[in-house]
Design goal:
The protein is an alpha+beta fold and about 180 residues long. The N and C termini lie far apart (about 45 Å).
Length: about 180
Amino acid sequence: MNTAAPSPDALDAAGIRPATADDIDAVAAIYAHHVRTGLASFEEEPPTADEMRRRFDALCAADMPYLVAEADGRVVAYAYAGAYRPRPAYRHSVEDSVYVEAGCGGHGLGRRLLQALIEECTARGFRQMLGIISDVEGPSIALHERCGFSQVGRLRSVGFKHGRWVDTVIMQRPLGDGDAAPPG
């Protein structure tokens, strides 16, 4: 497998498409890097590819969107939406996740994925999207702001990873009619 990042031109032209089961090994590798080195996830050990496949299958079974960005024939970023919480009253709200392969940032992949995810969730009738961002010093807050999210809360020191306490920022964006009308 080629581990060099695709060229800047290839990253700028990367296509966004629905993920397939064949993409999950690449997704697992991208996520593993973020688990091991960053604060974007509060997992401390990277899940196996089999566990990532189980998670993918569960989201697909729930008709949740799962997207990848592909450049030069390989997956370089991914995004998905899942239920915000399992209780029935939350069924109109989703939580997003966006991850870009190390060395592939700065080409708008996260923004394009999140915008496509917003469109997919709106088309499915969801009314609110939340981003729960633990890497508060990373690019995720700016990404969400560029895509129309507002900061609605901050939970201080709720995680402990890489030898330090970590906050989470809650960001929210209405979808479709938001809360202007009851769900259809």
